[in-house]
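All the exercises in this workshop are built on plain-text protein records. A record pairs a protein's sequence with a compact description of its fold. The structure tokens are whole numbers drawn from a learned vocabulary of backbone shapes. Once this layout is familiar, the rest of the handout is easier to follow. An example says more than a description, so a record of this kind follows.
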Amino acid sequence: MKERLKKCIENLKHLPGVYLMHDENDTIIYIGKAKDLQKRVSQYFLRPQTGKVLKMRDSVEYFETIITQNEKEAFVLEMNLIQTHYPKFNVLLMDDKHYPYIAIKKKNDPYLTIKRNKKDRHYDYFGPFPSASLAKEMIVLLNKIFPTRKCRNIPSTPCLYFHMGQCLAPCIKEISEEENNKLVEEIKSFLRGNNHKIREEMRNKMNEASDNLEFEKAAEYKKVIDAIDHINTIQNVEVNDRVNRDIFAYSSREGYIALAILLYRNGVLLGKKVFVLEAFGEEMEQVSDLILQFYLDHEAPDEVIINSDEVVENLRDLLECEVISKSKGKIHDLVLTAKENASNALDEYFLSARLDDDKLLLLEELGNLLHIKTPLHIELFDNSHLQGSQPVGAMVAFINGEPAKKLYRKFHIHHEESRDDLMSMKEVISRHYLRSKNENKKLPDLILTDGGLIQVEAAIDALNSIEVDIPVFGLYKNDKHQTEGLIDKEGNTYPIINKSLFFLLTRMQDEVHRFAITFHKELRLKSQTASIFDGINGLGKKRRELLEKAYPDINLLKQASIEELSQLLPYEVAKELYEKLHS
């Protein structure tokens, strides 16, 4: 054992905290937490290890520790440090989003929408749903069944929904508070799973329409019944206690772990979520960490059920809700359902998906090919413009071979020669890394440009001007305009023979192109719509924002009728906009 490691182990304390493993390049390669730093960290070096843990341990030059007051504080610190340093041996639950809620407006006329959090106190919330598509599907169904307000802004005349009996028409009459409250309670009851009565009403209306030879109307009722049945199929297991609970189960095989989550709200199953990740270290510790990571971005329910007493013990003091296991009864049956979903996810992963190549090995190979240290953090740049108009730059970052979208950046090009891609490259790189330098941010291990030697030279000139040293290579193409390899500042080429490495770099290249072009299109769209909106009386900032949100594409806006536009705008404003769009 290295002498420096021996001294580090001797200094370990029997206290909670976080430990950071460093390699010979002083790069943090693993971050962990422990109830007892001395017991946990010394295990890595004093006990036999295998697989990735052995590989990580053998790469450790030294480690440092940060002592905390308790394990909960250690977990929060661990997550913050991981999301700052992105160590290559940390396995993260990549779920970057807040799940959607169905939001019901509390006062005035009931209105349904989707929200990603519960901050607006003017709404009641139901969820969260595991996907936006499920939440939207439910809202479409509710809007068909109940006479809710569909218009974002109340028009001056009743719309088609009123004539179809699907709206109370607050635009032409005042709806009593009692009637609104009754409607809200009916919607809430439906969301809690009490839909059998409504289904029977729809069935009676369908039969009545059929008897009256109103077959189109009968067909519409049949669609609603089918939608209710579809929802009931998804929510095929109900618990009558109306408790908000998440049920976790895991399954592991051949170095991979699947974690399944069943989300119940008010006793109704809203859906499932499954994650499949590469295993690392002790299984129960990893499962515990993944569940804790899940609740960093998601609100904890009243109750969390897990099919492991050890994981329950690990999390009981760390989650602000009841954490329990079940060994019998209906809830235990649901745990078995979650376990089946986890096992099935592993089956699907191994049978239908080609396992990803080891990206860390590919990055090591890339470093050896270019004679630089392993580029765990790579940043790529691209520019986009249309004949010099709306010029933009973009940067994407990949850490450990995966896109790190929080680090992506967009740039408005300021120099006057907007068609000059080399000047754009110099401007973007110098601006970006001068700011990183001034703010003492960690620099990437490698910069990749697209366009060959001249782009590499432009990037290096920009870095030299701000006295920043980062390896720069370009992706060069062959005579068929296909990416063939990498080129350095001296013009030396490095053909990529390994197909897996080639596809990894191509994926990075495609991502920076996509990001740049998307940003450019956004600016062009804003420019187009701004010129259309100019000069229309009554079309101010807030109404423009409403239109841009409702019609993200100029062609969609052109297809809207005056009546459709008047749901967002006063009729005269809608008419003037319609005429200008079609003039």
